[in-house]
Design brief:
Layout: H1 10-25, H2 30-52, H3 59-87, H4 93-127, E1 134-136, H5 143-158, H6 168-184, E2 188-190, H7 195-216
Antiparallel strand pairs: 1-2
């Protein structure tokens, strides 16, 4: 079979499979899809660390890892949040069509951001050693933190007694616009390490608990 098969890509593939299930679940259970998004985010936090433990990787394997990670990110943090957005769209035909356009453009922005990252990362690895310290543009993986939080806030503010809040179909697409634009703006973002990663992990756990609570009520 073509491709490279070793332990460094397993978690990336697991993340993709989870997000694919989330896409399937989105039309009937956006909460379950958001849980899949969160889980893929957790996988993404560790797949790079696992990949760096393999010191004997060839140049081709390293390049494959960069490409496969970005291709999976398009699905996990681009298509899945958009699929959730479509499932939450208002029922009015004009509003629904507007949300579909927003979701499509969100995926496009994520794709552009990842393609740009691939080009710059390959150039950086050819001229530098060590880890990347900054990103240009907000990383697409922030979707795993942003959209579960947006959904939870909208639900608690707009519908304390149940799902689905009338606020959610409007707030969620608004953040799709904000986040999509942030992907392609030339903003210099420091890559999180150490304490920042711990904080992000804590936020993810909090959001996971909120999603479970919303599903249970």
């Amino acid at each position: 079979m073509i491709g490279f098969y070793n332990y460094t890509v397993i978690l990336t593939y697991v993340s993709l499979l989870i997000s694919t299930v989330g896409i399937f679940l989105a039309p009937t259970s956006p909460l379950a899809a958001l849980l899949c998004l969160l889980t893929s985010g957790v996988c993404d936090m560790f797949d790079g660390k696992i990949a760096r433990t393999r010191k004997q990787s060839t140049e081709a394997e390293k390049r494959f890892g960069i490409q496969i990670d970005s291709l999976c990110d398009v699905i996990c943090f681009g298509v899945l949040p958009a699929a959730i957005g479509v499932s939450l769209a208002p029922t009015h035909p004009a509003a629904k069509a507007a949300v579909w356009v927003v979701c499509a453009l969100f995926v496009l922005c994520g794709l552009i951001r990842l393609a740009y990252f691939n080009v710059t990362e390959e150039t950086r690895q050819a001229t530098e050693t060590g880890r990347r310290t900054h990103y240009m543009g907000v990383p697409i993986t922030t979707s795993a933190v942003v959209f579960p939080m947006v959904f939870a806030v909208a639900e608690f503010l707009g519908s304390p007694g149940g799902v689905l809040s009338p606020l959610t179909p409007w707030l969620y697409p608004a953040f799709l616009v904000i986040t999509g634009v942030a992907f392609i703006l030339p903003i210099r973002i420091k890559k999180p390490y150490g304490a920042r990663l711990v904080i992000m992990g804590g936020i993810g756990l909090l959001e996971f608990g909120l999603m479970v609570f919303l599903m249970a009520r």
